[in-house]
Amino acid sequence: MSDEPVLIAGGGPAGAALAMLLHRAGRRVTLVSRCRDYRAIEGISRRSLQALLGLGLARAAACAVGPLPRRVTWAGEARAPNAEWLLPRPAFDAALLEDLDAAGITVIEARISGLVSGGEEVRLTLADGRTLRAGWGVEARGRAVARRQFHDTAPWSVPAWILRGEAADDAPASAALSLPDGGWAWWSRLSGQQYLQLALPEPTLAQARRDPAVWLAAQPALAELWGESSIQHHYQRPSMLGRTRVREGRVWRLGDAAMSIDPLSGQGIFNALSSAHGLAPVLNSLVEGASLAPLERFHQRRQDAQYWRFARAGRDFYRQAMAAGPGPYWAARCHWPDHQPLHQPEPWADVRVGRGLAVVGTRLAERELVFTPDQPLGIQAVAGIPLAPLVEAMQAEDSARVAALLAEAGSAAPAVGRWWSDHLDWPALPAITPVTAVSPADSASQ
Questions:
Q1: Is residue 356 over pLDDT 60?
Q2: Peptide bond into 263 cis (omega under 30)
Q3: pTM for this prediction
């Protein structure tokens, strides 16, 4: 079973990342994709860029232009909270396939007509009539192939409206802003082209589409960004939100095909890469004979937890805009999915240690984890240091054991201490002696 190849349908960032992760773990992978002439510009964060480089997708990462200040004007407040990099697509998508080919992964550039699960195999049919077979398949062709299976969708779903055109200035730049009559916009400029993505109230969208140039000229902030250039192309793009079951028979869903989020709530490419990092250890463990049920349950719970977190992040942005200028657009969006905080309180009394599945290297394995209300799937490590022994020692008030564990952590101890100190209700750790070595970045992993 472990020698059977995995078929991946779709070569965007989610499919490419999964192919690379499985290939590195010794799996035989075949990826089938067709590069679309989708001339968009996309923004990514520093952590997404670092993730691409860490996966060995160097050609794709080299397409990124930046860092640029991430200019945001939201609810009347102008900020530049961090930096972003701009990606030109389809050049980025073509570079992903080049990276996979250079790594020795089988890439077939073709149109896919079907991916089905039957018996003990999956069958991927190409438009030219060829059929590929494998033990497991992965659907990574985006939200369009999965939207009929979406559930827990937002009660509102207005298509994104895209404007494209030339730019008089070649300097790369981007800006995000909320619009006074409801809706929001993300504008970017790269290599003499500009791209404007809009989320508008339905009546406004219908009016704007009748004469885009007139509508754009009447929006002072957007018109200033766009300049005097003409609009060369405008079109609608589906933006339905929702999540699916992560598995149908022997086909797993990945990226937007598994969970499509509001673009306002988080980085789409980051979500795609995160989705691949979640599915890779599931597939590695599965083809090596691990039981299906606990692996699927773990992955489904992980995806669902991410979906609700992204949904609440978007809701909080809408609430900020609603507070600055009430209107029906914001009101319809600031109560979904619920009224729970983005992050749950984590009182020390509710922290517990128990066994659970965790990502260990390239597989899933049972480990001692720390469970909190905000992290119901459990935390395995912080800055690479197992967390459960430290929590157990603190719960037992065993100061000698705590000191020994922090000493064993070495250069990672300050990062552990910083992460711990963010939990204000938790008992303080003993003072950590500074070390000269560079400590790993703060992180918690499941």
A1: yes
A2: no
A3: 0.90
Q: Which residues contact 424 (CB under 8 A, 6 or more apart)?
A: none
Alpha-carbon distance of 374 to 345, in angstroms, equals 7
Peptide bond into 337 cis (omega under 30): yes
Q: 210: Cβ–Cβ under 8 A, 6 or more apart, which residues?
A: none
Neighbours of 287 (CB within 10 A): 21
**Packed helices 268-287 and 292-324: angle between N→C axes, nearest 10 degrees:** 170
181 phi, psi to nearest 5 deg: -95, 15
CA count, 13 A, side-chain hemisphere, 88? 14
Work out the number of other CB atoms within 10 angstroms of the CB of residue 411. Answer: 14
Which among 65, 73, 313 is positioned nearest to 184, based on CA atoms?
73
Please tell me the distance from the alpha carbon of residue 84 to that of residue 172, in angstroms, as a whole number.
11
Residue 353 CA to residue 413 CA, distance in Å, equals 20
Give tens-digit pLDDT for 38-66: 789 999 999 999 999 999 999 999 999 99
Which token pair is 42? Answer: 């996309």
C-alpha–C-alpha distance, residues 183 and 111, integer Å: 35
Provide, rounded to the nearest whole percent, the portion of the chain with pLDDT above 70. 95
- Read off the pLDDT of residues 95-134 as tens digits, 9 standing for 90 and up: 999 999 999 999 999 999 999 998 889 999 999 999 999 9
Q: Which two tokens stand for residue 378?
A: 């459990």
Residue 160, phi-psi category: left (phi > 0), alpha (psi -120 to 50), beta (remainder) = beta
Beta bridge partners of 189: 173, 194
The answer to whether 62 and 95 have CB atoms below 8 angstroms apart is yes
pLDDT for position 324: 85
- In SS3 terms, the chain reads as CCCCCEEEECCCHHHHHHHHHHHHCCCCEEEEECCCCCCEEEEECHHHHHHHHHCCCHHHHHCCEEEEECEEEECCEEECCCEEEEEEECHHHHHHHHHHHHCCCEEEECCEEEEEEECCEEEEEECCCCEEEECEEEECCCHHHCHHHCECCCCCCCCEEEEEEECCCCCCEEEEEECCCCCEEEEEEECCEEEEEEECCHHHHHHHHHCHHHHHHCCHHHHHHHCCCCCCEEEEECCCCEECCCEECCEEECHHHCEECCCCCCCHHHHHHHHHHHHHHHHHHHHCCCCHHHHHHHHHHHHHHHHHHHHHHHHHHHHHHHHHCCCHHHHCCCCCCCCCCCCCCCCHHHCEEEEEEEEECCEEEEEEEEECCCCCCCECEECCEECHHHHHHHHCCCHHHHHHHHHHHHHHHHHHHHHHHCCCCCCCCCCCCCCCCCCCCCCEEC
